[in-house]
Amino acid sequence: MSPPDIRPRAAAESPRRKGERTAERILDAAEKLFASRGYSGTTLRDVASAVGLRTPSLYNHFESKDALYEAVLARGISPVLRALVEAAESRQAHDAERLVKTLMAQLAERPKLPQLIQHESLAGGEHLSPMLREWIAPIFARADQMIETGPAANRWQPEQFPLLVIAMYNIIVGYFTIAPLYKEVNGRDLLSSKMLEQQTRLFGELIVLIFGSSPTGEPGGQGGIPQPEVRRLGGSESDSKQ
């Protein structure tokens, strides 16, 4: 008679944990579909098929397509908002660089999220999801606050603040939205670890230049951009002062 098997057995996965894992799979699939097809072009049947579930099974996790869409936005955008809140409250110049590193890392985990936002933004008008507006508006508001209360307020005019926010948005978010096309055209994967590291460093330096204080500490002045000394070609330093 063989001895009994006394090896420890793996604990059975709890129904709650299994449900959470399934919900994450649903969110991953929905994020990809919403990014490629938009809210209007994606059905719950599409999401269920991508996950390998029957459509009625989705309702065990999300009560509607709207609820699923909002969950996708909440999962991706909430960390971004938290990072912006912390940066706005800190009011330190070097925190702008740290913010870029945080945002790049977060978006690298969810590279489809910027593409989702771009898809809906390009659709525009009545096709722009009200939920998306509700999630994105606080991001711009917090970014405005970060500029208004930070060192950048000494360098730029108030009417330029929204333009700076848009520039920062396009620098960071645009990197992820262009990644698929850039890979097709040039064969380089912008989402590889090496490229992300290089771009994060570059973006950090750009943000410090944009959001740091001006050399004189005074706001504005020639549009907030230090003007180089103008010298004649071939002339000496003394000539340029004449």
How is this fold's topology laid out?
Blueprint: H1 15-37, H2 44-51, H3 55-58, H4 65-90, H5 94-109, H6 112-123, H7 130-148, H8 161-186, H9 193-211, H10 237-240
Helix pairs in contact: 1-2, 1-4, 1-6, 4-5, 4-7, 5-9, 6-8, 7-8
CATH architecture verdict of the domain at 75-216: Orthogonal Bundle
The shape is: globular
What's the CATH class of the domain at 75-216, please? Mainly Alpha
Distance between the termini: 108 Å
Low confidence ranges = 215-242
The percent of residues in helical segments reads 55-70%
CATH topology of the domain at 75-216: Tetracycline Repressor, domain 2
Largest sheet: none
Computed CA radius of gyration, to the nearest angstrom: 24 Å
H/E element sequence:
HHHHHHHHHH
Number of helices: 10
Percent strand = under 5%
Q: Which secondary-structure class do the elements indicate?
A: mainly alpha
Number of strands: 0
**What is the average of the pLDDT values?**
79
Summarize the structure.
This protein starts with 14 loop residues before the first helix and ends with a helix. Residues about 215-240 have low confidence and may be disordered. The chain is built from 10 helices and no strands.
Report what the structure shows:
The protein is mainly alpha-helical and 242 residues long. It has a domain at 75-216: Tetracycline Repressor, domain 2 (Orthogonal Bundle), CATH 1.10.357. The protein has 10 helices and no strands. It has helices at residues 15-37, 44-51, 55-58, 65-90, 94-109, 112-123, 130-148, 161-186, 193-211, 237-240. The radius of gyration is 24 Å and the shape is globular. It starts with 14 loop residues before the first helix and ends with a helix.
